[in-house]
Amino acid sequence: MPNTFLEKIEYKIEATAIGTWKRYGYENGTSFHEFKSHIGLLGLPLIHYTYGKNPETGRRVVAKGVIAIGRIAFGIIAIGQMSIGLLAIGQFAIGFLFGLGQLSIGLAAIGQVAIGVYFGLGQVAVGQVAIGQLAYGKYVLAQLGFGENVLSITRRDDAAFEFFKSFPVIKNFFH
User: Fold this and answer.
1) In the predicted model, what is the mean pLDDT of residues 119-145?
2) How far apart are CA 98 and CA 28, in angstroms?
3) CB 56 within 8 A of CB 3
4) What is the rounded CA–CA span in Å between residue 110 and residue 93?
5) What secondary structure letter does DSSP report for 53?
6) Is the pLDDT of residue 143 over 60?
7) What is the dihedral of CA 134, 139, 95, 112, to 10 degrees?
8) Do 121 and 129 touch, CB atoms closer than 8 A?
């Protein structure tokens, strides 16, 4: 296999009406793809998508855009294994407003482990309002809950009961 770091890389470049694709196919069948939209906002492309390892560096390119999609993504809307943005979706998601992922952090967070400043929903959840199997917060609905006002299999605080029975999705369970 040739050492691509010592060669001039010849990408397949395809310009479309909305952006430019940059692609490279390795001999072993793997590939590198990158898309950047022509229009942008705040110095970032509207859409930045990355896939695979860059043949020039041997590393993954971090997706940075208003909408960023890649293994590692930073953007207003970020989607990737590790994502950071206002809205973040990924295995490890830090969403300043909303995070969705296996481990998610944000003002509101949903995930297996959800750490929300205001709202957390997950198997393990933390937040002012926390719903999960194991949860901690001010208002908690959980199998095993800790906090100020808890509704769980072992504890039923009146404030938690009143708070959660007003949730449209949950209120049918409180008859």
Assistant:
1) 97
2) 39
3) no
4) 10
5) B
6) yes
7) 20
8) no
